[in-house]
Each structure stands twice: as C-alpha cells, then as structure tokens.
C-alpha cells in the first residue's frame, strides 16, 4: 500500500469525537491521485510510483507533459506530480487510483506543505526580537540593534537575525492524528493545523516517528522465573 498521497487544504473546522470532546481539525481533500508512472529497480534503479493530483488545461500544458499524461492513458495532464519511494517492488500499475481510503481513522500522519508568504518583514515579526524601549524619547523601537561588527568580533555572526523575506518555505508538521475519513468524498479530517493557506497543495504521508509499537512478548525463561517467585 502506498504511504503518501497528494491533496489540498480546504480549511479548518471542529468536530466531536467518540468521547464527545470538541476537536479542532483541518479538512484535507486527499486525492483521487492517479498513478502516472511506475519505477522499478530493473528499469530505474529504485522502486517508486509517480502520482498525479488534479488536472490543468491543455493550453497551460507543455507538449512533454501532454505526452507523459497520454502515455499513462490520461485525458488531461495532472496539475501536481509527486514521486513516492517504496521499499519493495510496487504492486500498483499505471492508471490505478489512490484515494483517501488508503488511510484509517486514528492513524498518525505527517503533512508537508508550503507556509503562507508574509513578504519582507522586520526582525520583531520575523524572529520575535525584543526591540528597543517603547518610550517616546528612545528613538529605537522595532530595529535590530547592535550586531557586533566593530572590534569584537569584527564581523557579523552567521545566522544573525536580520530583516528579510518571511514565510513561503516548505514545512512538515509531524504526528497528526486522523480524526475521521470520509472516503466517498476523499476527505481527511486531521487534528490540528497544517502549513499553507486554504486551497494550497499538501502531501499527507504515514508518520515516520510517531508510530506506536506493539509490546514485545516476554521470553519463556522470564515467564517461568516469574512463576517461581
């Protein structure tokens, strides 16, 4: 089974769980994603599948993209393509469709997206620098202050907080729980917030760090020793 799927952030809402607790969730349209290409160790040196999400008009598509889509049997080229690496030989074939039913309720996932762009911002908003006094006569309120460029150290340190472009970077939110799966509408209700604005493309994948492991069974020797005690 594939562990990643392309989708689109629709917005946030809130639902009641089984314990009647109000839970904030983000609605993600997960798929349907069509398998556009299958890669194997024999042909490409590694196992992977290329999936496509949504579609775009022919006038906005290059001839190479149109040919790639036609080879997969698609009428229109996908708007977004993503490659999912696999540990073993893929069982999916070109033309197969992956949707939200690949995930289950209660599963832990990671969501990858691009954060909202904030434009050019100062250090107070960009890095939460304290700034200067707020008094009227200080003449120093939201600036960066000294950055140590004189005798010591005689240069500016690396990673010094400076004004600049804020946001619009790739971010991954880990270990989010899927509260509900609406398979007929290809919707995932993910607990909490995810990167990006409403309508932005995201990738939902099985969590790498947050998977629960089943408790290991005790060895027979340990059981017999505990019984003797």
Notes on the structure:
The structure is a single chain. With 229 residues, this protein is mostly beta strands. It has two domains: 4-116 and 171-228, Elongation Factor Tu (Ef-tu), domain 3 (Beta Barrel); 117-167, no CATH class. 12% of the residues lie in helices and 36% in strands. It contains four helices and twelve strands, in the order E-E-E-H-E-H-E-E-E-E-H-E-E-E-E-H. The protein has helices at 41-44, 63-71, 123-127, 220-228, and strands spanning 4-16, 22-30, 33-39, 48-53, 80-85, 97-98, 108-114, 117-121, 164-167, 170-182, 187-191, 201-206. The strands form three sheets. Strands 1-2-11-10-7-12 form a six-stranded antiparallel barrel. A four-stranded antiparallel beta sheet has the order 5-4-3-6. A two-stranded antiparallel ribbon has the order 8-9. It is extended and about 70 Å long. The two termini are 46 Å apart. The relative contact order is 0.23. The model has no long low-confidence stretch (mean pLDDT 87).
Architecture (CATH level 2) name of the largest domain = Beta Barrel
Structural class: mainly beta
Query: How many structural units, i.e. domains?
Result: 2
Mean pLDDT: 87
Give the DSSP E fraction (strand runs of 2 or more residues): 35-45%
Globally, the shape reads extended
How far apart are the termini?
Answer: 46 Å
Descriptive keywords:
mainly beta; 4-stranded antiparallel sheet; 6-stranded antiparallel beta barrel; single chain; extended; 229 residues; 2 domains; Elongation Factor Tu (Ef-tu), domain 3
